[in-house]
Amino acid sequence: MEEDAIRKSRLVFISHSSADTWVAKQVAREIAARGATPFLDEAQVDAGADFEEDILNFLERAHELVVLLTPWALDRPYVWAEIGAAWGRRIPIVALLLGLTPTELQTRSGVPVLLKKRDLLLLNEIDVYLGQLAARVRQHQEG
Questions:
Q1: How far, in Å, are 60, 105, 135 from residue 89 at the CA level?
Q2: Per-residue confidence (pLDDT) for residue 44, from 0 to 100
Q3: pLDDT surpasses 50 at 131
Q4: Which of 37, 59, 60, 68 sits 20 to 30 Å CA-CA off 8?
Q5: Is the predicted pLDDT of residue 123 greater than 60, yes or no?
Q6: pLDDT, tens digit, for every residue of 17-69?
Q7: What does pTM read for this prediction?
Q8: 114-138 burial, b for 16+ CB within 10 Å, e for fewer?
């Protein structure tokens, strides 16, 4: 996508474990269908590019972060770094749970309060988020 089009779009960073790539691609497709621009590392970072720099550049511009939380994603340092970067920028963080219940995440040791106090959606409830995203995209385009 052209840089100018990206600047005018609502940008959604998708954080996930590499084990969840297929599911993350489906989430990205649904986000794009709502008119937003998703960032998915394997789709947007060119081979040989500075991986960390590309991630940081998009995170600095992102309007929100969607994090796919699975039991294995909780063990990935990049997922936690991306959540921390979004939290530091005070952009919305939307947690989609797969293989975990909200109670399991909230009672798990080591999970920061910043994530535990958010509305946590099961992946099967993604339509709730997508409807809200579509409304934000409309507002973004009007504003």
A1: 8, 23, 22
A2: 46
A3: yes
A4: 68
A5: yes
A6: 989 999 999 999 999 999 999 998 754 444 454 556 777 888 999 999 999 99
A7: 0.86
A8: ebeebebbebeebeebbeebbebbe
Fold of 3-142: Rossmann fold (3.40.50)
Alpha-carbon gap, residue 87 to 27, rounded angstroms: 21
Alpha helices in the chain (DSSP H): 3-8, 21-33, 41-44, 51-61, 77-89, 102-107, 113-116, 126-142
Of 23-27, 55-59, 86-90, 98-102, which gets the smallest average pLDDT? 55-59
Contact predicate 15/64, CB 8 Å: no
- Strand order, beta sheet including 37-39: 37-39, 11-15, 64-69, 93-97, 120-122
Of 103, 110, 115, the residue nearest 66 (C-alpha): 115
CA distance 21 to 19: 6
Query: How far, in Å, CA of 17 to CA of 77, rounded?
Result: 9
Written as one letter, the residue type at 56 is: L
Structure confidence at residue 51 (pLDDT)? 56
Domain locations in the chain as residue ranges:
3-142
